[in-house]
From TrEMBL, chain A:
It comes from Streptomyces musisoli. Pfam families: ABC_tran (PF00005), BCA_ABC_TP_C (PF12399). This is ABC transporter ATP-binding protein. InterPro entries: AAA+_ATPase, ABC_AA/LPS_Transport, ABC_transporter-like_ATP-bd, BCA_ABC_TP_C, P-loop_NTPase. One of its GO terms (molecular function) is ATP binding. CDD domains: ABC_Mj1267_LivG_branched.
Automatic annotation (TrEMBL), chain B:
It comes from the Bacteria. Residues 346-360 have a biased composition (Low complexity). Residues 341-385 are annotated as: Disordered. It is a multi-pass membrane protein. The chain crosses the membrane at residues 18-36, 42-61, 68-86, 92-113, 120-138, 169-189, 220-244, 250-280, 292-315. It comes from Streptomyces musisoli. The keyword Transferase does not apply. Keywords: Cell membrane, Membrane, Transmembrane, Transmembrane helix. This is Branched-chain amino acid ABC transporter permease. Its main location: membrane. It is found in: Cell membrane.
Length: 252, 385
């Protein structure tokens, strides 16, 4: 479904990603791990076209992703969440989710100003879609609240709802349980698992919480200093000497 | 299931209340010119036309998060388009409106493209230069614009069947255009497009990941905004019947921005309040002394920003919160005060009736209530870096 091939990114003299290749099969969940600064978020940014790699190739269902303008990626069925939350603080939770469905709407400026009948219909559809998702994720009570000022765990779920509103086929989660309490991590994992099943999603997740990654993913890719050092199912990756070395160092 | 029923109920109630408000406002607006003296009707007309310009500026600054210190230039462009058409080609008044609107839309589009690469102070400076540069240009183009002397044009005349005086007729014409303009702005904002604009204001890169085309929405916001200013300028020519370069100095641009901030950024009815502020404050303070308007205007802006940082439109939402907080402060202080010492024996009965239940109530609602006015009048931050 997603094929990353030899992707290289340099920032000045630093090579953030160095020839990383892996594939994500349809319907699978792939975890992306690695120590801080390994290049995980940079890789995510390449997939959503926020950053253009210096070399390599990214294909999504056979289409060259790097040839698309950044705003077109969502329309192809790729949605993401952000490491430090990228919500719109002054919009309500419901509006945030409706912006998530932006790529599914068609209304242009002129039609919107005249409020043509099809604009009304579309507004109603997007509103219903948002309400369904908010109910599904237990956010109906805060729907009218501005995104700023809600608890962190709630905001994480709002961001997930916003990403799901695009009806993506590939969902990218950037440290989804970072900053959540122990109990919340478990709940969030269950939530992600169930929405992946319900919406038939393929998942690529960056996370430091090993319990979360190992419990959720079918395959784990480990990066270190911009290079892929391992790619294996979770139970094997935990025994991989290169991974252990990257995380714990090696005895002198 | 019950939550759905509740939201439906409040939804219907809100719709009913909105419809009643609109009806009431319409009745007042239609009745006003028959009640007030001609000069007061003229002032109301000016409020309406400034409201159009401010609604346009609000699209750009309040909802789009960009800034413009050059909207006086679009206002002037609209005014001169109308004046020149009336003066040279003797077209009817109504014919000048679409031309002024379309011309300013295109001007705004042209300026919106460089604005894509600028933000904050830099954008303010570039737009300001436009406002500074236009009046001298108008003076130079004497054959068309009449130079420093300006142009005197006819005001729209009331048709015989209406039986209205000139000022009343003008008022109704301006009222009609204003109503349509405000409706267009409201429609735009309550749609996918309006949400996209506000999303871009709050977080550009996140909005782009959601599929929002930044360049398209930002340039079109500029174009719409310029169009509204141009329409207001066109109305200005109709109302005053005279244009000159000195009417459109950069002070006009600054006044418009100040009016918007005072009225309430990112609020749907903030532009109306701002327009009233811009119209009435100078004319009322004129009675005090010749030099008073500038001083009073400035002091009032400072005062409003202290009392209502979200603008006048945010005030109704802020007052109950402030009152509740004050009450809870008083209630919190009371027990340690004299009354508590006097009636020490039954503590439950000693506290005065209304305060003791209100204390926990207001406390609990505090984290929630301040957020409510923010949706109406956003914080007065116009730019994020």
């Amino acid at each position: 479904m997603l094929a990353v091939d030899g992707i290289t990114v340099r920032f000045g003299g630093i090579t953030a990603l160095d020839g990383v290749s892996f594939t994500v099969g349809p319907g699978t969940a792939v975890g992306l791990i690695g120590p801080n600064g390994a290049g995980k978020t940079t890789l995510f940014n390449c997939l959503t076209r926020r950053c253009t790699p210096d070399g390599g190739d990214v294909r999504f269902e056979g289409e060259d992703l790097l040839a698309l303008p950044p705003h077109a990626v969502a329309g192809r069925g790729i949605a993401r969440t952000f490491q430090n939350l990228g919500l719109f603080p002054r919009l309500t939770v419901r509006e945030n989710v409706m912006v998530g469905a932006h790529s599914r709407g068609r209304t242009g400026h002129l039609a919107a100003a005249l409020r043509l009948p099809r604009v009304r219909r579309e507004e109603r559809e997007l509103g219903d879609l948002a309400d369904d998702l908010l109910r599904r994720l237990g956010l109906a009570d805060v729907a009218g609240h501005p995104a700023a000022g809600l608890p962190f765990g709630t905001l994480k779920r709002v961001e997930l709802a916003r990403a799901l509103a695009a009806r993506p086929r590939l969902l990218l989660l950037d440290e989804p349980v970072n900053g959540l309490s122990h109990g919340e991590v478990g709940q969030f994992a269950d939530l992600v698992r169930s929405v992946c099943q319900d919406f038939d999603l393929t998942l690529l997740v960056v996370e430091h919480h090993m319990g979360f990654v190992m419990g959720l993913c079918d395959k784990v890719v480990c990066l270190d200093f911009g290079r892929k050092i391992a790619e294996a199912p979770p139970e094997e990756i935990q025994r991989d000497p290169a991974v252990v070395e990257a995380y714990l160092g090696v005895a002198a | 299931m019950s939550t759905i029923a509740v939201t439906l109920g409040t939804d219907r109630a809100r719709r009913l209340r909105a419809a009643l408000t609109v009806l009431l406002a319409a009745a007042v607006a239609v009745g006003a010119p028959f009640y007030f003296a001609p000069f007061q009707v003229f002032q109301l007309t000016m409020v309406l036309l400034y409201a159009v310009a401010l609604a346009g500026l609000n699209l750009l600054v309040g909802f789009g998060g960009q800034i413009s210190l050059g909207h006086g230039a679009f206002f002037a462009a609209g005014a001169y388009t109308s004046a020149v058409m009336l003066d040279r080609y003797d077209t009817g008044h109504l014919a000048t409106l679409p031309v002024a609107a379309a011309g300013c839309f295109l001007l705004g589009l042209a300026l919106g493209v460089p604005a894509l690469r600028l933000r904050g102070l830099y954008l303010a400076l570039v737009t300001l230069s436009l406002a500074v540069f236009l009046p001298p240009l108008l003076k130079r183009l004497e054959p068309v614009t009449g130079g420093s002397m300006g142009l005197i044009v006819d005001k729209p005349q009331p048709p015989a069947w209406s039986g209205l005086a000139e000022d009343q007729w003008t008022y109704f014409v301006v009222l009609a255009v204003t109503a349509v303009a405000l409706l267009l702005a409201r429609n735009l904002l309550r749609s996918r497009v309006g949400r996209a604009l506000r999303a871009v204001r709050d977080d550009e890169s996140a909005a782009e990941v959601m599929g929002v085309r930044l360049s398209l929405h930002k340039t079109l916001a500029f174009a719409w905004s310029a169009m509204f200013a141009g329409v207001a300028g066109c109305l200005y020519t109709w109302v005053i019947g005279f244009v000159s370069p000195d009417s459109f100095s950069f002070v006009l641009s600054v006044t418009l921005l100040a009016g918007l901030v005072v009225g309430g950024l990112a609020s749907l009815y903030g532009p109306l309040l701002g327009a009233a502020f811009v119209t009435y404050v100078p004319s009322v303070s004129q009675d005090l002394s010749e030099a008073a308007p500038g001083v009073v205007f400035g002091l009032l802006i400072i005062a409003v920003m202290f009392v209502a940082p979200t603008g006048l439109a945010g005030l109704p939402g802020r007052v109950p919160v402030a009152v509740a907080r004050r009450l809870s402060d008083v209630a919190a202080r009371r027990p340690s005060g004299v009354s508590a010492v006097l009636h020490r024996t039954p503590p439950a009965a000693s506290a005065p009736g209304p305060e003791s239940p209100s204390r926990p109530g207001t406390r609990a609602s505090e984290p929630l209530t301040p957020a409510d006015p923010e949706t109406v009048g956003a914080p007065p931050r116009t730019e994020k870096e």
